[in-house]
Amino acid sequence: MLSAGNPFPNFALPNQDGKITKLSDYAGRWLVVYFYPKDDTPGCTLQGKGFTASKADFDSAGIAVVGVSADDAASHKNFCNKFAFTIDLLADTDSQLMKSLGLGQSEWKGMKFWERTSFVVDPNGIVRKVYEKVNPEGHDRVVLDDIKSMKAKAA
After folding, report:
1. In the list 10, 31, 74, 120, which could disulfide-bond 26, CB 3.0-4.6 Å?
2. What's the number of domains the chain is made of?
3. 141: helix, strand or coil
């Protein structure tokens, strides 16, 4: 697993609208990249709703948030539309980014899923915190508070 202090790998992944999104798009800003197992499942829905509900707080703090799963852009679009998500969801359909980060996998009902993991990336592209086996409920607030604390210490 990629740990704090390492550069976050470059990526170029389509969002729910098919727009290619790159790490460089967030240069100079704090970034939360949260990985989740599957669109339109209970925990993933809870997590997406949480980040959407907190989006204004993240925006006002200068923090971007993106979700990533192995689902394709069309699945992400349906997921966003169904729950009115206002965050970008990126499609890592070949799991290349997830593999490069060393994310773990879990099995449920005979299917493998990438484990729910979040990364906080600073404005220079360096990982500052990694959250493994995330509890989706309230995770958005934990991450926001942690980044605010990191920013205060750096000031």
Report:
1. 31
2. 1
3. helix
Domain residues for the domain of 76 are: 12-150
Instruction: Examine the residue annotation and report whether 80 is marked as an active-site residue of this protein.
Output: no
Decide: helix, strand or coil at residue 109. Answer: coil
- pLDDT at site 78: 98
Q: Give, in degrees to the nearest 5, the angle at Cα 72 between 105 and 89.
A: 80
pTM of the entire predicted model: 0.96
CA dist., res. 33 & res. 129, Å (int) = 11
pLDDT in the model for residue 125: 97
Tell me how far CA of residue 71 lies from CA of 2, 25, 44, 47, in angstroms. Answer: 22, 22, 12, 16
Does residue 2 form part of some domain?
no
Instruction: Specify the CATH number for the domain of residue 29.
Output: 3.40.30.10
Q: What is the pLDDT of residues 7-39, one digit of tens each?
A: 999 999 999 999 999 999 999 999 999 999 999
CA angle 136, 142, 148 (to 5 degrees): 145
**153 touches 128 (CB < 8 A):** no
User: What is residue 135's DSSP assignment?
Assistant: -
Q: Using DSSP, state whether 23 is helix, strand or coil.
A: helix
Q: What is the pLDDT of residues 77-135, one digit of tens each?
A: 999 999 999 999 999 999 999 999 999 998 877 878 899 999 999 999 999 999 999 99
